[in-house]
């Protein structure tokens, strides 16, 4: 029998971030991004920080906010290792886009490292353009910067 688990996307709270940090490797593998999970972002931008919950815990999350110039910025997005490839990343982006739009966003933006080929493919598939920006993170520290306009239609690439 195949059991279909219901996943619900809701606002993130501090307990969710602690849970995600406890299971950090299931979202990020060998990369240690724990220091980027700033409690202040969840405390201050709760409306645009979301988690996907199921019976067996948190399947994915997005931490983001809307800038004063109308950019919905995704600081972190990840899905749990056993939830990948199911469309959850796309659903999380759609939910974030809705929340960001309600708070005045006109466009979306995110960044990733040059080596994160999975993230680059994922964002391109979601309709973002991807540009390498030299010195984004400081001297000789290029990053890939993603942009796309809103609205975000979750059914379209
Ligand atoms: C990147 C990540 C969030 C994608 O989540 P996901 O739930 O697997 O994504 P989805 O299943 O919603 O995929 C959406 C689309 O992107 C494509 N895609 C996702 N990951 C991909 C990959 N690694 N390579 C190629 N395409 C990919 C899917 O094929 C899908 O295309 P489709 O809708 O046309 O079928 C997930 O792999 C992850 O958490 N990675 C580790 C953390 C990370 O690197 N986050 C990004 C930092 S900026």
TrEMBL record:
Family matches, as Pfam families: Acetyltransf_1 (PF00583)
UniProt keyword annotation of RNA-binding present: no
Gene3D superfamilies referenced in this protein's UniProt entry, alphabetically: 3.40.630.30
Signal peptide: none
Entries under InterPro entries matching the protein: AcTrfase_GNAT_prd, Acyl_CoA_acyltransferase, Bact_Acetyltransf, GNAT_dom
Domain of life: Bacteria
Keywords: Acyltransferase, Transferase
Chain ranges of the N-acetyltransferase domain: 7-151
PANTHER family the record matches: AMINOALKYLPHOSPHONATE N-ACETYLTRANSFERASE-RELATED, AMINOALKYLPHOSPHONATE N-ACETYLTRANSFERASE-RELATED-RELATED
UniProt protein name: GNAT family N-acetyltransferase
Originating species: Streptomyces racemochromogenes
